[in-house]
Design brief:
The chain has 16 helices and 13 strands. It is of the alpha/beta class.
């Protein structure tokens, strides 16, 4: 195999065989192929796309680059949820313990920040001592004994995706449907799950800007899941504005705890219940959507969902003192972004909001960057809300004044205010 020829083939719109993909990716893993060459192939895939058989080969290659979990001996239904990425999306942190408290087994492998979207692992690591890097044996044991484990990719699970994922983030190839499919489905299938629900985000803050494109992705993901024996459901939700009242790191953990204690934002909880209902019905625990939603609400009001979250935190080495300490990860600096006119918020540039969170310290511009657990944005107004000139719309916070000022500047003109009444539609069909 000559790497340049493979790159040229894809650059020219030709299909790559399973053997060619496997050789190229394996050579990248063992260091024979450089980051620059893999970057070139990723960019070629981004522009030329892949056919169904190529995507299936990509998933299979990434899946079999490492080990696979096996939960077939469990009485409980092993399942997982995945979001294609959004701003303020902390649903996994609420839904995982919630479903585990219902009796499902949730082996969840999550990622770090990618582009303008936040990373579940970065959020979880703001809990003092919480370990996301655990061995496969411990991951399996935690799933069986606690009912849930939330970890990052180990060197054993899809190492090809682990290495390529970081490269996509810094090469502008995040939005590619084949690469999204390869990354998501290889990890999920490797978890040994029987069921999966996908939250495909749509809008200016999502990788899929239109419902048409989102459905192409959703249908592709469903085909892959079912071809590998994983029952797959898809829900399409809007990312025309951030989800919940905050976006950031520790602040999203706090909002997740609020959700598990019955105080979560309405939009965040609506998405949580919708996704949870799909898996509860798949597992046979609930027969209808209404029954599934009622069960989830009961698990929250009874305290069982929050207890399961705390059990997971302790089992993965996390300390619980931060949850009762108002000064934990307290930001040093705050600044408000003010409305420039009076009226009703019509729309906002959610992508720019995501970039602003990265600037504040919630994400990475390059793989070596560190994140600031105190950083984030609170959304004081959202689409459909009335505002007066000079009234705060966003509140930015972190522990780096220069980054705070830069983040604020990025948000100065991203909200459209007019006199017309409007509403935000959360679920799309």
């Amino acid at each position: 195999m000559i790497p340049a020829e493979i790159i040229q083939q894809k650059r020219n719109g030709q299909s790559l065989s399973k053997k060619e993909l496997r050789q190229f990716i394996q050579s990248y893993l063992d260091g024979t192929i450089l980051d620059s060459q893999m970057s070139a192939l990723l960019m070629a895939i981004y522009f030329q796309g892949m056919k169904d058989d190529e995507i299936s080969s990509l998933v299979d290659t990434m899946l079999n680059s490492g080990k696979r979990m096996d939960f077939s001996s469990l009485d409980s239904y092993p399942a997982d949820k995945h979001s294609t990425g959004g701003v303020g999306d902390k649903v996994s942190i609420i839904l995982g313990p919630l479903l585990a408290s219902a009796g499902l087994a949730i082996p969840m492998i999550s990622g770090r920040s990618l582009g303008h979207t936040g990373g579940t692992l970065d959020k979880l690591e703001t809990i003092p001592g919480f370990r996301v890097d655990v061995s496969l044996d411990e991951f399996e044991d935690l799933t069986k004994t606690v009912g849930i484990a939330m970890i990052g990719q180990t060197e054993d699970i899809c190492p090809a995706d682990r290495k390529m994922y970081a490269l996509r983030d810094v090469t502008g190839t995040v939005e590619s449907i084949p690469l999204i499919c390869g990354s998501i489905m290889s990890k999920k299938i490797a978890e040994g799950i029987r069921g999966l629900v996908l939250d495909v985000k749509v809008g200016n803050g999502a990788f899929m800007k239109t419902l048409t494109d989102a459905k192409k992705l959703g249908e592709q993901l469903t085909r892959i899941g079912e071809s590998f024996g994983v029952e797959t459901d898809v829900v399409y939700t809007s990312m025309a504005q951030p989800l919940g009242n905050v976006a950031g790191l520790w602040c999203e953990i706090q909002e997740s705890v609020d959700g598990l204690q019955g105080r979560g934002p309405a939009d965040t909880m609506a998405v949580t219940y919708e996704l949870g209902a799909k898996l509860l019905i798949q597992s046979g625990i609930a027969k209808t959507k209404d029954e599934a939603i009622d069960l989830q609400k009961h698990l929250i009001t009874s305290g069982k969902a929050y207890e399961k979250f705390m059990e997971m935190v302790k089992a993965q080495g996390g300390s619980t003192h931060c949850f009762s300490n108002d000064r934990c990860h307290a930001p040093k600096y705050f600044v408000d972004v003010l409305a420039e006119k009076t009226g009703i918020i019509q729309s906002m540039d959610t992508y720019q909001i995501g970039l602003a969170t990265v600037e504040l310290g919630c994400g990475r511009k390059k793989t070596s960057d560190t994140v600031d657990p105190s950083s984030g944005i609170r959304f004081l107004k959202k689409i459909g809300d009335s505002v007066e000139i000079g009234e705060p719309i966003f509140r930015c916070f972190n522990s780096n004044k220069k980054k705070l000022d830069n983040g604020k500047a990025m948000l100065a003109t991203i909200v459209n205010i007019a006199d017309k009444q409007t509403t935000h539609k959360l679920f799309l069909k």
